[in-house]
Amino acid sequence: MSTKMKKKKPEYNSLFIAVVAAMLALIFACSCGSSSQESTDKFIVTCHRDDCSSYPDLIRDILPSSTVDEYRTMGYYALENGAMEAFDVQAIPALQNNVARYWYPQYLATVVIAIDRDQTDVPLTKWRDLVLIKDQISLGVVDSNQRMLVAGLSYGLEGSDYTTQDAIDLLIRLASSNQLQYASQDTPIMICFDYQAVHLMKQGRHLDIIIPQEGTLTFTKGLLSRRQLSFSNDVEERLLAAGFKLPTGEADSNYYPREEIYVKAVNAENAQHFNTVAVDILRDLRRRVQKVRLFSSADPREHQLFPLLYLTLLTIWAASLVHRTVHKSSRGALLLTVVAVAGWVIMRLIKYQVPVYATKINGLLWYSYYLFQLALPLGLLWLAWSIDKTEDQIFPPKWFAVLCGINFSLFLIVLTNFRHQLIFMFDPMDSRWGHNYSYGPLYSLVLLATIIPFLAALIILLVKSKRNPRKRAILFPLGLCLILGLYSYGYITRVPIAWDSDATMMIGIISMLFIESAIRSGLVPVNKNYLKLFWQSTLGIQLIDSDNHVVLASSHATAISDDTITEIIQGDSKPYYLNDDTLVFAEPIIGGHVVWQEDISQLNRLQLKVEASIANLTVANTMLAEEARIKQAIYEEESQQALWAQIEEEIDDYVKEMRTRTVELLKSTVTKESLALLALLMCYIKRRFNLYFRTKETDRFALGEFILYFDELVELASYSGLHIFVTSEQEGEILPLQSSLLYDFFYVIVSWAAEQEASPLLVTLEKKDAQFIFRFLMPRVSQTFNVPPILADAVADIDGKIIFKELEEAWGISLLLPEEVSHG
């Protein structure tokens, strides 16, 4: 969050640097081992591994000073140490781009249909006839050069501007009817090169070579080199004797069809068109025809693209982990896990760049996978251990260091497998040892070193998940563990769906999903929503970095300039007045300061209320003076008698009560309470007079002025020990009749409560649904409150209601008066 805080992570930086340094050292060791053991000055001719071709043996005769290697696939890197067997569609671009300098075409390879007449007598002359028969058909007789075979088939089905769509569709139809096989020499019908069919015929097979009537492609094969080659003088004779067809068209007529039949076979001269069309053939064959590699890379391009895309996503995800993770130990465990997953894929990507003939470095890179495979479960175990640990507990106990030492020792054993073959067993003389191998006696220890930490991490998560409020959240991580276990078992036992996938990426993806699901389920503490929580905070708080810049601020914080922030921070914790309603405070934290704002607007509003109360008193005095003037104008000589009679009728009972109280007061001991009750009555009588005269003056008056009448009674009642808390609306107007009833009701209850010592008294006046609601809440006392009959009748006359409620330890009384009445 700040510069200083970011720097306070040396342990993670050291861990990261150590792991990266180990990876680089491993790569350097592999490179040095490869260069020292596999570099050679011999001239190597690299040929296709083809069981139906004697070309590699022929090269040994016509180039006796060379060494011949055979591989199923190869690239132009084979030119580094000599020459390579190539098709013309490969040689031409190499010459044009100066990858090679010399091209020696030596024999033709025509894509044909070979029919074994000992197995079938089906008449077949066209490519499209393949879908009309029921016999088994093989695409190729060896596991290589499928692109050329499919291109020949495509040319026959579509013509010179061929694509691969029709050919792939035809192969899909054959595969869907379970007729299609791959790289088989035993099927009745084979799509292969003519020289391969001739090789099988020389071994005793009774084959018919069919040049399809729609047409096919003829490729030229030979040697591609960066240096000039010198062959023996009898090259052509040797080629003919070996069963090959020369570029001139000359061939052994005992095996090859007549030359006029080859009219339908067109030379594949347009190398650019072929290389454009054939780029996706291998991928389409695997995914669309064979239905394999559906979820992993299917051709060399994807072998490069998928890891790069995977590493990009992994980097983004790792950055989000660092951003989200709160706990230091969890962050270190996640870092180790991410480095293990990334390093595994990086090693795999490097391995794909290494030539196939560099067997030692390929093996070392393959063995290096196990450094990360053994580190991955340790990272998950560390993560599970760290879930409920405190901030100061970063690294696991010594038992974790012991596990790390055991796994690293097993990795060293794997890395030296070439010497002892205790992990993997294979024939070093077999160039396909990377595929043809079995597991050695110590391989089970490597599996246990992978499985045991993973199971331990799983058990720890299960135990700690009991404290997680979301109990069902553990199901998804458990499901991913089950998927990982089933996948690993399937890969080890070579179940096709698992064996044909990329174990490196699949295990990494499942591990990432496991960690993410653990985070989402709440098992791993993260600060996922802390920024949102900070933003929604009602506190006006800001985090300031060491450069006095705002890093994070809540939505309620007022923007502050950098200069002001500097002034606040330098103020030695003294409050700073940002404006009339805001005080700002600052305190130092790690990496900067926390600045928060205090809202003093309520204090300011209280001050304004005090000033308003003073103004109201002034208004009250003015009002009283105005009332005196009005009374003098209203009460003329002729109406005074009637007015006094009416007044006497309304408050006669209260005047008598005042006289009685006065007499009793004179006869008994004077107390503060008795004086307060008398003063309360006198105040009521006085204000009742005022209200009476106001009714004569106007139809209605402000509710805020009327509430002032209550305040006097509240103050006088306090001298009797009765505490009254009044809450009322201030806006609006009230009719004189309602005001008189409300005032009478208020006095009656206050007077009774003062006598009964029913304190405190809570009073609320509000307007709701076109009526005034006057509520009283008082503690329960021995005497029951009774509404005077005159007051009850007056309330009923205007359709009002008086409601009593008995609570557990209190009484509730409510007076409901309509806001408007039709009589008054």
List keywords for this structure.
single chain; 824 residues; alpha+beta; Rhopdopsin 7-helix transmembrane proteins; D-Maltodextrin-Binding Protein, domain 2; Profilin-like; 4 domains; ten-stranded mixed sheet; five-stranded antiparallel sheet; 24 strands; 16% strand
**CATH class placement of the largest domain:** Mainly Alpha
Cα radius of gyration in angstroms? 50 Å
Major sheet, described briefly?
Answer: 10 strands, mixed
Give the overall average pLDDT. 82
Low-confidence stretches: 1-13, 29-40
Percent helix range: 40-55%
Class derived from helix and strand content:
alpha+beta
CATH topology of the largest domain: Rhopdopsin 7-helix transmembrane proteins
| Beta-strand percent range | 15-25%
What is the total domain count? 4
Shape label:
elongated
Oligomer: single chain
How many beta-strand runs?
A: 24
Number of discrete helical segments:
27
CATH structural architecture of the largest domain:
Up-down Bundle
Q: Give the distance, in angstroms, between the N- and C-terminal Cα atoms.
A: 71 Å
